[in-house]
Amino acid sequence: MSAYLFLLLIGAAVIAAYLGGSRALAVATTAETGRIKAHSRPIYHGLNAAIWTAAPAFIFLLFWLAFQSSVLNQLVVASYPGSDAMDSAAQSLLIGEIRQVAAGNLFRQPSPEVAAAADHLRSLQTYSTYLMTAISLCIVAVGAFLGMKVISPRYRARHSVETAVTVFMMFSSLMAIIITLGIVGSLVFEALHFFAKVPVTEFLFGLRWEPQIAMRADQVAGQGAFGVLPVIFGTFVISAIAMLVAVPTGILSAIYLTEYAHPRFRTVVKPLLEILAGVPTVVYGFFAVLTVAPAIRAIGAAVGIPSSPNSALATGLVMGVMIIPFISSLSDDAFAAVPRAMRDGSLALGATKGETIRKVLLPAALPGIIGGVLLALSRAVGETMIVVMAAGLIAKITLNPFDAVTTVTVQIVTLLIGDSEFDNPKTLAAFALGLVLFLITLGLNLIALRTVRKYREKY
Amino acid sequence: MSTTAVAGTRFNWHSDEMKARRKARYAAERRLRAYGLIAIVFALGFLAFLVGSLTFTGYKAFTQTVATVSIDLSKAELDTSDLMKADWRGAVRDTLRTQIGDLPRRQEKAYFDLFTSSAPFLVRDAVIKDPARLKGSSSFVIPLSDQADQFVKGEISRDTPESQRRISDEQIGMLDQLVSKGVISSPFNWALFLNADSRFPELAGLAGAISGSFWSLLVCFAISFPIGIAAAIYLEEFAPKNRFTDLIEININNLAAVPSVVFGLLGLAVFLNGFGLPRSSPLVGGLVLSLMTLPTLIIVTRVSLKAVPSSIREAALGVGASKHEMIFHHVLSLAMPTVMTGAIISLARALGETAPLLLIGMNAFITSPPDGIFAASTALPSQIYMWADSPERGFVSRTSAAILVLLGFLILMNAIAIFLRQRFERRW
């Protein structure tokens, strides 16, 4: 229904633009004996009429759709007998059930109260749709009338259109802030719910992470099952392995490409390297499971090291390869930013190219490279699909790369796939983990961006 | 005086000591160079290995072993008044029996297991689509079941001991008989593109995932493209330089580096839980993806706006255009090819994104393609994730094939972007 309404809005706007334009032309020519002396060209009058017609109704529709279901939920729950006595968790369960019944998904015979509530919800939904359609049609009609009425030769339609466009642009540039607020808000809000059930100290300093056990109500808190340290430790073990692969490979390949390679070689190889960054991570994950993990297991068995099927080594290795082009291109930039004179000076003193690179270029480019490495680290910490497919699920503190470890992102995904009832600590724990992940990566990014920027200003 | 002393101890560059030193220095130089080359070879080798192994496991999924049989439906005792409930199973089994010599009853089950268990439904759907087939014999294509398909493709070796493979010796004998009769063939597997998901590998296809990805990307583009361009224009051309716009800028840079799974959490908490939008729908998927692509798009657009020389702006303003006209008629249209390139590349990135889609439920098992942005669906990468988790052997090659399809789309999009860039690249 709402999709048709949006289409209707677009249609109405097009018609209004056409009618407004032709009316502006007519008004302008009749007023001044055949000569057009309007302030704005007809197209602006048309656009203005279209904006008047569609924009208010569009904004109204967005708000209505955004808040419709939560308002309806409130209404239905309020009319449900005995709902005052329920806590919010029981209420959200109830809403879920009523919604399922109202949508016609019957798994078992609903209780009469639920059936009645579902009927109530359905009638409310129909009512709400009618109301939404009626109000938005009214807004369209009023808007179109006003938009057509203002058309006159004196009317500064262009200014009004430009103001509308500017308002839209200002709103768009605020989107970045709105998204950030949305992220922080939703993470903090749900994490606070979590911390109401599990103490913060338990979460931050606990040494055991066993969220699945905490399904039972009597085991929620105090059991140390939500200690985040092993998960963070596992994240850094895998990231460290990835960085061990990516940092030397990335920097060395950047050195070769900027200093030694023939330009033609560079133009071929550089895009090829970038492909590594463009491959979807789910592909790397599948590759790690299908090919790399068994290979590492076989190698481990050959040299007598028992290896788990989900070894941290396989995961880290594949993740490291994913990050290579990232580090490579950032170090590339850093080398390119070192002034020519420094390089030439070193060469003129008789240093070899290699000595120039090691003693002059690397130290000079170091801040930029470190910034790049930090950005890459943040990417490794936040990387999800490779670890979800290839890393383990059991959180433990170990430094053995042949062992399986779990990461923050793995836990977020496994906690949230399947059910999303926002009442048990298991689901909410994912948001607490998300908050931790966001803060870690935010910190790394801020330091990295600052390092890179500071360094760029130097030369 | 001292100068002569220095001149007296003139350096002998040709001494053995210096020769050894020089040799060591040159060797170090060559080593560094070799290390760089090794690093590149490692990275590219890995890429080649990745693509190679995926192609090697995936190419077999592009064909499917099928049996082409002709069924005379006029002879089968079918209840034509209610086609949905007629005894298709019996009709199909009768036909399949005729394809092979007399079988003892206890072997029949093994024989029927060679064909997909959905064969009656395939025949039923084909007849409902074309009722004329009821009036005589017509040929039907029936896919073989997963293990028979794997065997014909050579994935399961004849030499494996019988206890270690899922196809028995007597089934192999029957298959050989069918092959010698010319019933079995391996045509191109169109079902991979035309069918939606299924629990049976021989029937599973990508149609649902492809259309789900398409709808999500459409929503993503419809939201992020206008908003991204508007934001970039405002920040680049209109915004005053103050602390607030600085804040917005830092914010955009940071958003571009926020892990994707966090955007999934946002979508789950705000769009699904807060606004009550339909779970698993391309609408929510597209919304989340658009939030992710927005920062990149804004950054790209700003760069391309900056690249338009100020003489264009001054000329437009000089002949009396308003600031908006200058931007929309001249600057933006000159920057548009670069903006489009950036948009396509960020859409390509969104196409491969998986983690946020998992959190908003776009990994549901859905057996029909979605018919819009509100219907539950999957997307290509989440379909790959689901298939990768499936235990059936046939899904291993199908996962690789799906990855090849996804990579194909990515290469196509990037090729379009490169083409646009080269076609419209402008040197000022």
Automatic annotation (TrEMBL), chain A:
The family database entries (PANTHER family) matched by this protein are listed as: PHOSPHATE TRANSPORT SYSTEM PERMEASE, PHOSPHATE TRANSPORT SYSTEM PERMEASE PROTEIN
Residues in the signal sequence: none
Where does this protein come from, organism-wise? Rhizobium gallicum bv. gallicum R602sp
Residue stretches spanning the membrane:
6-26, 47-67, 130-151, 163-189, 231-255, 275-296, 316-339, 360-381, 428-449
Q: Which domain of life is it from?
A: Bacteria
Q: Does the keyword Membrane apply?
A: yes
Q: What GO biological process terms are annotated to this protein in UniProt? A: phosphate ion transport
Q: What is this protein identified as? A: Phosphate transport system permease protein
Keywords for the protein's UniProt record, in alphabetical order = Cell inner membrane, Cell membrane, Membrane, Phosphate transport, Transmembrane, Transmembrane helix, Transport
UniProt cross-references to Pfam families, sorted A to Z: BPD_transp_1 (PF00528), DUF3708 (PF12501)
| Cell compartment(s), UniProt | Cell inner membrane; Cell membrane
Q: How does it sit in the membrane?
A: Multi-pass membrane protein
What family does the entry list? Belongs to the binding-protein-dependent transport system permease family. CysTW subfamily.
Primary gene name: pstC
Q: What does this protein do?
A: Part of the binding-protein-dependent transport system for phosphate; probably responsible for the translocation of the substrate across the membrane.
GO cellular component terms, A-Z: plasma membrane
Ranges where the ABC transmembrane type-1 domain occurs: 232-448
Q: Quote the Gene3D superfamilies the UniProt record gives.
A: MetI-like
List the InterPro entries hit by this protein, alphabetically.
MetI-like, MetI-like_sf, Phosphate_PstC, PstC_N
Cite a single GO MF annotation: phosphate transmembrane transporter activity
Automatic annotation (TrEMBL), chain B:
Main location class: membrane
Q: Source organism's superkingdom? A: Bacteria
Q: Which Pfam families match?
A: BPD_transp_1 (PF00528), DUF3333 (PF11812)
Bilayer-crossing residues are: 32-56, 214-235, 255-277, 283-305, 326-348, 401-420
Keyword Transmembrane helix belongs to the record: yes
Q: Name one GO biological process term.
A: phosphate ion transmembrane transport
Which CDD domains has this protein been placed in? TM_PBP2
Q: Where is the ABC transmembrane type-1 domain positioned along the sequence?
A: 210-417
Q: What keywords appear on the UniProt entry? A: Cell membrane, Membrane, Transmembrane, Transmembrane helix, Transport
Does Ribonucleoprotein appear among the keywords?
no
Membrane topology per record: Multi-pass membrane protein
Q: Which InterPro entries match?
A: DUF3333, MetI-like, MetI-like_sf, Phosphate_PstA
In terms of NCBIfam families, this protein maps to: 3a0107s02c
Q: What is this protein called?
A: Phosphate transport system permease protein PstA
- The organism is Rhizobium gallicum bv. gallicum R602sp
Which gene codes for it?
pstA
